[in-house]
Amino acid sequence: MPDSDVLVVGAGPAGSVAAWEAKRAAPELDVVLLERDPTVGVPVRCAEGVGDAGLREFVDPDGAPWVARRITRIIFVAPDDTEVRVADGTVAWILDRTRFDSFLAERARAVGVEVRVATEAAGMERDGDGRWRVRVRGPRGEEVWRARVVIGADGVEAMVGRWAGLDTRVPARDMESCAQYVLQNVDFDPDAIYLQFGDRIAPGGYAWLFPKGVAIANVGLGIVALRADGRNAREYLDAWIARRYPGGTTVGSTVGGVIVNPTIKQTYGDGVMVAGDAAHMVNPLSGAGIVNAMKAGRLGGRTAAAAIREGDTSARRLSSYHRAWMDLLGEEHRTHYRIKQALDELDDGFFNGLARTANRIPERKRSLGRIFAHALVRHPQLIPVAARCFV
Ligand SMILES: Cc1cc2nc3c(=O)[nH]c(=O)nc-3n(C[C@H](O)[C@H](O)[C@H](O)COP(=O)(O)OP(=O)(O)OC[C@H]3O[C@@H](n4cnc5c(N)ncnc54)[C@H](O)[C@@H]3O)c2cc1C
Fold first, then answer.
1. Confidence of residue 229 (pLDDT cuts 50, 70, 90)
2. Residue 2 has what pLDDT?
3. pLDDT tens track for 259-309
4. Which residues line ligand 1 (CB under 6 A)?
5. Residue 302: how many CA atoms within 13 Å on its side-chain side?
6. Which residue among 56, 112, 197, 383 is least enclosed by CB atoms within 10 Å?
7. Distance (Å, rounded) from C-alpha 94 to C-alpha 160?
8. CATH fold for domain 3-45+98-169+263-333
9. Architecture of domain 72-90+172-259
10. Closest CA to 31 of 16, 42, 44, 53
11. Residue 222 carries which DSSP code?
12. Is the pTM for the entire model greater than 0.90?
């Protein structure tokens, strides 16, 4: 039976960073990274946008081959199509996720992590020595791997957490269904990302355009099915594109789910931790999860390495991972979740009014903080909403 110290399930951003960090922290450990798909980073189920500051904690995007576009502006679009331009300077990057994910996995391999693709974890149970036995299916047939610590970085489907008895259920109101096309021959500012809100456009979520280059972009939206009018995400997207980008040519498409629920109550157990989407670590307000997954992977990998060195991989020892995550971002996500719930109660008329208010702020002074402050003064119905978010 093959043995490993740290077995990471899933080579997305959370898993590749977790494996890399564990091996770097304790090079003497055997660290194995399993990926179900034959190629890391394929298929892409993502709009590929990341904030500049978060990304730079891990990698340098300047001139990197896995970057598609540098973004200097955000354009919010109200339900009535009023545009509000915010920010100047580098604010975000649009990645090429196929290259980015494979870069992260290769970086882990380069420090000695054993990366196995086309290899799926199919179940796991605890053995008598306090290790996990993980059933694995891959090119070598069925195998059982023993591991001191398993890190579940297996995305929204999150089987590792379930096998370990963690509660990873998602309320239907917090599951966004997304559809996205790669659209060519469309007219937009190639240095800006566009976000449009509106009950008839994307109920419970929003629509986006993220440039991959000049005249080519990821164009998609997320909806909460419970709030929809019977149409699915793709039907909402087709309607939005027909209205805003009628001349576009579709060169790719994807669908996927985003969990906009705060971090699960317990992200660890005896010899196991879950990270990234598997632990609901997406920002519930924006739906962004790439950098969060990397941050969780970093904490999980380091915690696994330290715990194994100390000879204590009990749930009690691994609970430090959960605490560190909650201090870093988990508590903030709870606040963002409350803001999202409060915003969900406001109607399209409110957002149209807010856009006009925001446009009265001179563009060079227009920041998200200033917009919020103006909104509180000019739209007093926001005050109870804001109060509820912070108490
Ligand atoms: C349409 C859409 C648009 C999005 N846009 C953005 C965006 O612009 N910016 C942003 O920050 N976030 C975005 N997100 C969210 C983002 O994609 C995720 O938060 C991020 O990929 C999470 O990383 P992860 O490593 O936790 O999981 P994933 O990237 O999902 O990786 C999990 C990996 O585990 C593998 N796996 C699963 N089960 C097993 C198994 N049993 N055995 C082996 N391998 C397994 C999967 O194949 C996969 O490679 C978007 C999501 C969607 C659906």
1. very high
2. 86
3. 999 999 999 999 999 999 999 999 999 999 999 999 999 999 999 999 999
4. 9-15, 34-37, 45-50, 120-121, 153-155, 157, 159, 178, 180, 220, 256-258, 276-278, 282, 287-290, 293
5. 11
6. 383
7. 30
8. FAD/NAD(P)-binding domain (3.50.50)
9. 2-Layer Sandwich (3.30)
10. 16
11. E
12. yes
